[in-house]
Amino acid sequence: MLANTNFSDNTIGYILDGVMDMKSLNNFWYEILEKLAHHDKVNLYVEDENLDSFTLNIILIVTLFPLEYADKFDKIVFVAPGRKHNALEKLKSLLKRVTIKNFEVKDKKHARNWLLSN
Fold first, then answer.
1. First CA to last CA across the chain, in angstroms?
2. How many CA atoms within 13 Å lie on the side-chain side of 51?
3. Is residue 28 a contact partner of residue 1, using CB atoms and an 8 Å limit?
4. Of 30, 48, 43, which Cα lies nearest the Cα of 104?
5. Domain-by-domain residue ranges, the chain?
6. Secondary structure percentages of the chain, helix, strand, coil, to 5
7. pTM of the full predicted structure?
8. Are 51 and 82 in contact (CB under 8 A)?
9. Which element (helix H / strand E) includes 108?
10. What is the pLDDT of residues 2-59, one digit of tens each?
């Protein structure tokens, strides 16, 4: 996993790369909690360009943590290959209090712009 901090002060961005072990997942959650200590609400950008499989990484990221802290997220963006969008759409129903959008990898610039818009 590669953290990308080139967003705004209340936005966390990650590009998933390779295997995500429990240590990486814990670091991911810790960084979100650190942001939440300074902001009432945060935005989350998650990009997964893995074309070969639908990794468990994205499932863990988009369900377990946001379910507990759903009221602390303003916007969440998932950038993933097209065939992953159906599964991500189903996850959106679990997080009804958060504005969530899915974008194709080719549209990641548009995803970032949407996330940073008011």
1. 28
2. 3
3. yes
4. 48
5. 2-17+42-116
6. 50, 25, 30
7. 0.64
8. no
9. helix 108-116
10. 656 667 888 888 887 766 667 777 777 888 888 899 999 999 888 876 645 545 555 6
